[in-house]
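Section 5.1 Outputs to date
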Amino acid sequence: MSQFTDVFLQFIDGWGYYAVAILMALENACIPIPSELILGFAGYMIYAGRMTFTMAMVAGMVGGMLGSYFAYYVGHYGGRPFVDKYGKYFFVKKSHVDIAQEWFDKYGIKAVFFSRMLPVVRTFISLPAGFAHVDMKKFFFYTFIGSLPWTALILFIGMMLGEGWKVMMEVGHEISLAVAAAIVIICIVLYVQYKRKKKKRVH
């Protein structure tokens, strides 16, 4: 998809929030457009005063959620055979779906949350969730809370980097792993605090 980078940037430059929402929908619908490109450039637009953080955040989340639902329904109604047969026409590699499937098989519905911050997996995790016919309310919940910090952080980094926002394209995977590690640590800390408070109440 790198050959279309300039096209995507021109689209965002011309259509603003609508373009952010559409491209994030495509990315989450398993079209491998890097979210670092979409949200990173949107962050630069915030820096340049052409977007607001709040509206860019809303556009990114709305698009991401719609795309995730679309991919979920493709997996739900089409199944793995359909994706393997027709996915190649939409730049969907079987190996990428395999990676997402491995994550889902290992961690279940919780993989939908953690994978939103990981390279490759975040784009395709909705498919195995659809294959497994997971509960829609749980899918919505884990997709939302997983997408929210990732969307906000990439927008913020793009905004802070300003004209140097393209650095994220070079270190996107490292950023993803760092974000995932930080969120895992925060979850562990919150869980430990919760258990301690619960134990105190019992005593």
